[in-house]
Amino acid sequence: MNAQNITIKQFQKLISERYEATDRARGTPKTFLWFIEEVGELATALNGNDRANLREEFADVFAWLCTLANINDVDLTEALAEKYLQEGASKQPK
Amino acid sequence: MNAQNITIKQFQKLISERYEATDRARGTPKTFLWFIEEVGELATALNGNDRANLREEFADVFAWLCTLANINDVDLTEALAEKYLQEGASKQPK
Q1: Distance from first CA to last CA of chain B, Å, rounded?
Q2: Fewer CB within 10 Å of terminal CB in chain B, N or C?
């Protein structure tokens, strides 16, 4: 796998292979708490000047979003395709 | 672009091309408020039974995370590579 060209599908699968069993056992509500903890750390990093920490917090929020999607049987690529990759999607607001 | 094989880099660039000028003008604090609004909508969707809405809210949180990364000059692929795609990364906790 070329890290620079990793697809959303590949990364979501990697998070699944590495963590999904534990994540499913924890369940969505507790996993959401972990996700929000990382969102809080991202807010702290956005307020600071540590670029390496900022990159890490973006990565962690991204990974936990993948986890939440995995344990809720959501394929992020399909979700993004439906909302953002259709013909004419560029005219939609986010 | 094949939507099913879209890379993280391609999607972040698409969000940049579509929204970054507006997003930069808004700035990080106000953009974070929008991001959190979407996180709240994801929480609501996780509590509900509407699968299409759940997919949409995952897509929106993902897109707004890309926006926050764009206006803070963070390449999500590089951030993920540093934290999750290194040799031995599988032994790290999230």
Answers
A1: 31
A2: N
At A69, is the pLDDT very low, low, confident or very high (cuts 50, 70, 90)? Answer: very high
Cβ-Cβ contacts under 8 Å, A9 against chain B: 4-5
One-letter identity of residue B48? G
The pLDDT value given to residue B2: 78
> Residue B24, Cα to own-chain centre: how many angstroms?
16
Structure tokens belonging to residue B2 = 């094949």
Res A92 pLDDT > 60: no
The interface residues of chain B toward chain A in range 7-36, judged by CB-CB distance below 8 A, are 7-9, 11, 14-15, 18-19, 28, 32, 34, 36
Percentages (nearest 5) of helix, strand, coil residues in chain B: 80, 0, 20
Of B8, B34, B64, the CB nearest to A8: B8
Tokens of B79: 């951030």
pLDDT at A29 over 60: yes
